Structures are given as C-alpha cells and as structure tokens.
Amino acid sequence: MTDNALTTADEPTKKASTKKVAAKKVTAKKASSKKAPARSAIAPRNASRRAATSKEDGARLVKFYRDMMLIRRFEERAARAYTEALIGGYCHLNLGEEAAVVGLMGALRDTDYLFTNYREHGYAIMRGIDPNRAMAELYGRVDGVSKGWGGSMHMFDMSHRLLGGYGIVGGQLPLATGAALAIKYRGLDEVVMCTMGDGTANIGAFHESLNIAALWDLPVVFVVINNGLGMGTTVAKASAEPEIYKRASAYAMAAERVDGLDPQAVFDAAQRAVASARAGHPFLLEVVSERLRGHSVVDPAKYRSAEEVSHLAQFDPVPNLAARLIKEKILTAAEVHRIDEEQSALADAADAFAQSSAHPDVATLFDYNYATPVANDSRRLPGEALFVTAQRPSAEVGR
Amino acid sequence: MTMKTYRQALHDTLRAEMLRDENVFLMGEEIGVFEGSYKITAGLLAEFGEKRVKDTPIAEEGFTGAAIGAAMLGLRPVVEIMTINFSLLALDQIVNHAAKVYGMFGGQAKVPLVIRTPGGGGQQLGATHSQNIELYYAFVPGMKVVAPSTPADAKALLLAAIRDDDPVLFLENLALYNTKGEVPDDDRPAEIGKAKIAREGHDLTLIGYSRMAYIAKNVAETLAESEGLDIEVIDLMSLRPLDRETIVNSVKKTHAAVVLEDDWLTYGIGAEIAATISDGAFDYLDAPVRRVAMAEVPMPYSKVLESAAMPTNDDVVNAIFQTLEAVGRRLKKVGQSHD
After folding, report:
1. Which residues span the domain enclosing A73?
2. Of the listed B60, B134, B172, B261, which one is catalytic?
3. In chain B, pLDDT over 90 holds for what percent of residues?
4. Which of B48, B92, B104 is the mutation pick for testing A, counting most A CBs within 10 A?
5. Whole-angstrom Cα distance, residue B122 to residue B145?
6. Chain Cα centroid distance, residue B28
7. At B146, is the secondary structure helix, strand, or coil?
8. Selecting from 3.40.50.970, 3.40.640.10, 3.40.630.30, 3.40.50.300, what CATH number does the domain B2-183 have?
9. For the segment A82-111, what is each residue's pLDDT rounded down to a tens digit?
10. Would residue A142 count as lying in a domain?
11. Which residue of the set B11, B97, B129, B255 is catalytic?
C-alpha cells in the first residue's frame, strides 16, 4: 500500500485506517462525513510528500504525459469540430480525467476487457484504438470504430477489448459483470474493468452488479470516476454516502480511494485492484477526479461558482505533470513542448482523417438488423408501403 | 413422436441443448435448488451442477444484464424470468442493451441470449402478476420474440432460440404448461419469423399466439362440428419478426379476420395485425377486422372480476358470428347494388 489513498480533510484521524482499505475489507463507518469533499479539501496532495522518482517510474511518467497530452489535444479537437457542427449528438470529454484514464488503462493487459460509459474517447485511444478511427466515429463515418453506428457515446472494438461505451448511466455494469462471469466460466485469467461516473453509484444496477460480482467471486474491477458532479448535481446532493468507495462494504468487497489527478497513483491503485480481481476478488476503486469543462461540450456549467471555476486550473493534471517532469529534470521544457506539438499533430491528423472518411452508404441501413438472418425481417424505409395495394379480382366481389 | 406436456417439452429441450453445447447455461431465480417456480428446470442442477444452472439473487436487471454480457463473450445463456411481469425490472438491459449491442456497435458483438418467461392471467394473481406485455419487446428492433402454443412448437422454437445469435424473448404461458401434444423426437428447430397455418379453412381467418392460438384451434374445431364452419387458424409463433405475408394471404382467401390477444386492446398486438390486414388486404375484406382482447383494467383478484376481464371461448365464438354476420350484410348490399 502506498501513500496514495485519500482521506477527507475533516477526518484526519482516520487517515491511517482508510489507507488500509485495500488490504482489509472496508467496513461501513457510521460517522462518515455527509458532505462530499471539495477537490481542494482533499488533502494532503501526493506531490507534497512524494518520494524521489525512480528511472523506471520516470519513463512511465513520460509515457503517461504523452498519452495524457494526446487525450487532451484529441478532446480539444473534438470540441472544436462539435462547435463547428461537424460532430452531432452529445459529446462528453475527458478533459481533467486524463491522469485517471492513462493510469487505469496502464494497469490492464491486452487480453483484459473494458466496459465504460459515454465519456470514453480517451479510454478508447488508450486501449490501443487508432485516434483516427475514434475521431471518424465522432464524425459518424464508415472508418469509425463503430462504423458510424455508435457515435461519441458508443465506441466499441472487440479486437482491442473495448466492449463499449454506453450511453445509459450504469447500463454497462451488469454487462461487465456478465463478461466477468464468462471469463470465470471458461477458467481464463482475464479481468474486466468497468468504469462509471459518480452518479452511477446511485442507480439500482450498481447495487445489483456489485452484489452479484462479490457473491460469485467474479474477476471485475468497478471504477468510479468521482469528479464531484453528475451533470450539474454535486455528489453531496446525490449520494447519502459521498465517499463512494465505502459502498463496497455492503458487498464485503475490497475498495480504495485514490487521487485521480496523479497518474502514477491511479496506476498503482489500479494495479492492486486488477490483481485482486484476477485472483477472483472483485474490487471497487474510487478515483477522485476533476471535470474541467461542462458535462458535455454544449454545457457552460453555470451551476459552478466563479470561485470554484477559478480554482480548476490548479488541478489540471496535464500541466501539473509537465511541471513535475521539468522540476524533477525528467524532461526539459523543450521536450515537453515537443510532445505537445506531436500530440497536437496527431489530433489534427485524426480530424483530417475523419473529415475525409466516407459517410456510410444508405444501402447498409439494414445490415445489422440481426446477426442470424430470419424470415420477414423488416427492411422498410419510412416512406415505403408495407404492401403493394392489392385489388381484389372483380369476379370475386359479392361472391 | 412422443406425447408430452408443454412443460416437459421445454425441460427436455433445455437438457438436450445443454448436453449438446457446453456454452449453453441457465440463469434465473429459483431455477436450481427450488427447481424452478414452474418446474421447467427440475433436476438440471443435480445433473449439470452450479456452473451450468445458476441460481441468482432477486435482481432481474443485474442477472439479465449479466447474461447479456456473458453472451457478448460467446456464451449462450438461457435466462428464466419467473414471470414476464418481472421482466419490467430488466427493461433497460433488454431494450437498451440486448437489443442494441449488435447494431449500435456496427455488428461487432452478437448477443446469443434467450429469455424464457411465462405470461398469463387467470390464476388470481392480481394486477401485477397477470399481465401479457410481450409487445413491449416485440416493438423493439434487434429483438426476436417467439410464442409457442403447443409442446411441439415449444421444442422447435426453443431449439431455434438457443441456436440463434440474437436476443430472443421466448414467451411461455402459465395456462399452457400442462397441455399435452405429440412432440417430434428429432431436433429440427422452427424457423423464427414464420407463422403457421394451424388449421386450413375458407370462411374466416382466426389469428392468435400462445394461449390464444390454443383457444383459436379449439374454437375452430368446435364450430366445425357444431356449425359446419370452415375457419382458418393462424398461429403467429413469432411476434418479431412478424409474418405479415401469411396473415394477408389468408385474409385474401377468407375475406374476414378475427384477432385474439391476451393483452389490452388499445395499442395491442391485435392493432398491428389489423393494420397489416388493412395494408395488405383492404380490398378483400368483407367485414371490419375484429379484435378480442382483455378488458382494460388492472387485473382484479376476485375470480368473478378476473374471469370477466379475460377473453373466453364464448367471446371468440361471438366475435366470429358477428363478423360473419357483417360479411353477410355486406354481401347482401353488394348483391343488391349489382341487381
């Protein structure tokens, strides 16, 4: 156990016990705080008490930085395309979540599975999906990762074991549990990771899925990205127990809370969680993150106070990591700048690729009605009649 | 051929498919130790063990969704939802996930899932346990919905459903479990999406599925004996896809139709059948399409009130007579205008 597990500022005396949550199963504490900790109240920050970075960790941090910067520039490029009306539907971005994304995805093997929600562009790219194909999906083109059928919320790639972004809050939880059941059924050592937002902890499928996973010892890690806001509703206003990882105690499940702005901390915690799941002990990992923008691109987030918004920049994991890399002399400022330029170029290339990709052919509209073709499958377009109007033979009338 | 009950046909088919394919497994409430609320899975836990026969907690959304997830990885789960009423708790997983995964992700993942569940009223189970809401699922593209009325069809459609790579809602009926019939010994699956002409005739087309197809056949046989009527009976077998062609071709021949449904009339499956006949055989009709359906009330517990709310054989007979009368009146008018 490292020093990465977080405690709330108003519970300083519980720090020691909270840090052990991964080692021993969590037990519910009646006296748990009712209020969700504001990001600024989560203390102490890891950076202030971090040990010197090893060479190996340094190399990993550089990789994390490259990946975080790719997600950052990809998302910014997507936001621009959205405001230019090149992307339709909803568009939820990972801005502020980059450290969580790279830390979590870094802990998975290629053979492990990911189920996630509608805020999944970064996760898709970190699973190894070509940013070009991710961007083409946002554009609804044939080269999109879901061939233009899914859009921003529904990226899927079996070969990279991304088993979907899902647009219904919590819809992915039962599915992920079932995928873990299939793994256990076949006796494989793969793991399923299932990410969700903080609001998801309040739906019935959360309870049912965690209960089933624990009951059947399934290899699944449930990850709650707690950015403090479910759309515009704060965790404090939505969750009777705002320290979401504590919910695991209801299922005798191991759990941990980690600073989601520190990629190394997330990576370490995710490794512990994944190892636990691989040994047949499902795990609940709460990653305390930050949402730098609105719920989706079109949301101006007016429900956040000017003061709160003014503090957001200091929590931005991308420049914070850059500053650390420079301060610890792992990278020079010029190298950091070059990474930014390279990743910006990748995002621009993805956008160019998406723009040049073809729209799906309307003739393919019914291609995915069914996996097993059946008789009388409807292939009628909206304006078409079901039947050619049939005239009764006149000889028959008045039979 | 072997004579067996609808229940036994289901049981034997599940067992045979589990023996044939080790990816086939069962999930549901009380299906193992308790051997199933309606004993369809009796003995299977003892034979196949807990891995293949999974008792679940009472968590329809959770375990139905888990079955979908397992199916996405290539297993072939057969879920039992104790009655179709409880499927409402899993509606999000069935409608938003099982039915969507294949299309929404561009055909990258199949969902070879079967959800077995009985509908049916008439057991004094009251408002929340007596509904027939299969149309909720038949409404949704991506789903397949089948509804056998005989032990032989129960076997053939269950074989088809288990071997199909799409989510199939397999509708059973409490009132049919003890009905008997000859069941073929081979394992030839039915064709999903095809209706069956259960009885050929020329005077009127009587259309039903599940319990109402059973009633339709009985009424048609009775009226053949008592009135010499020659009624054609269509057993829909499949609600999605719907075999409109068979319905329309029959009505073109008989010129009259009565639709039987165990659900509520307004927006019910009968409305879709009537619209289909209007689309495909409007000019051939000699009378309006008549529907026989449940009274539009929450099902009462009282036996007297419950019986009054449910379609009976007499309701069907009356609807047939009134439709044939309307045909007669129209023929008379048509004849007069030609004079």
Report:
1. 54-364
2. B60
3. 96
4. B104
5. 23
6. 20
7. strand
8. 3.40.50.970
9. 999 999 999 999 999 999 999 999 999 999
10. yes
11. B129
